Amino acid sequence: MTPYIYKFNQQYPNIRLEVCYQHRVINMVKDGFDIAIVNHLPTQQMQKVKKVFSTYMNLYCTKKYADKYGIPESLDTIFDYPIASAISHDYTIPDSIIAKNNKTGEEILVRIPIKKLKLCINNALGGVILLKTDEYIVGLPHFLKVDTINEPLVKVLPDYNFGEADFYLLRHPNEKHDITEILVKYLLLALDIGSS
């Protein structure tokens, strides 16, 4: 959503957006949100939900990291290197992740040695900052424009992507504001999925 905010503000200069970046389960009614985009299906009943896109992670490190530590050459050695592992939306650390071979489509379950991990994060922007330290391999969503990081990056295990995730648009079950409808239609068009 972030890359589309400024365009929305330009197109609708009289609408104020209040954007909250959070990594927690939300309650649309209790928290007072009109819409939300989340990476998990909500547990609340009566929730209006629409799948808006799917993503996966690619692994990256900086060239300086690769020169200093080397890079994994197989799925078996990923966790032998300094890596920032993921924290789920429910604040748990997964004990495995699916690696999908981009060429063959084969999916491989990779066990995460939780006791071996030194750092776990739940935020892609934090991952970008960690990349710039030249000390970690970081997973970033495939749609993130890594060329904007201004660092020479190396794609780690480029034949694989990791951890497919779906994102959902949630709408407040009782609110029907014209402004909310405008924003929802704008986001759905920006994400190229149409409206409903």
UniProtKB/TrEMBL annotation:
<dbReference type="Pfam" id="PF03466">
    <property type="entry name" value="LysR_substrate"/>
</dbReference>
<dbReference type="InterPro" id="IPR058163">
    <property type="entry name" value="LysR-type_TF_proteobact-type"/>
</dbReference>
<dbReference type="InterPro" id="IPR005119">
    <property type="entry name" value="LysR_subst-bd"/>
</dbReference>
<comment type="similarity">
    <text>Belongs to the LysR transcriptional regulatory family.</text>
</comment>
<feature type="domain" description="LysR substrate-binding">
    <location>
        <begin position="2"/>
        <end position="175"/>
    </location>
</feature>
<protein>
    <recommendedName>
        <fullName>LysR substrate-binding domain-containing protein</fullName>
    </recommendedName>
</protein>
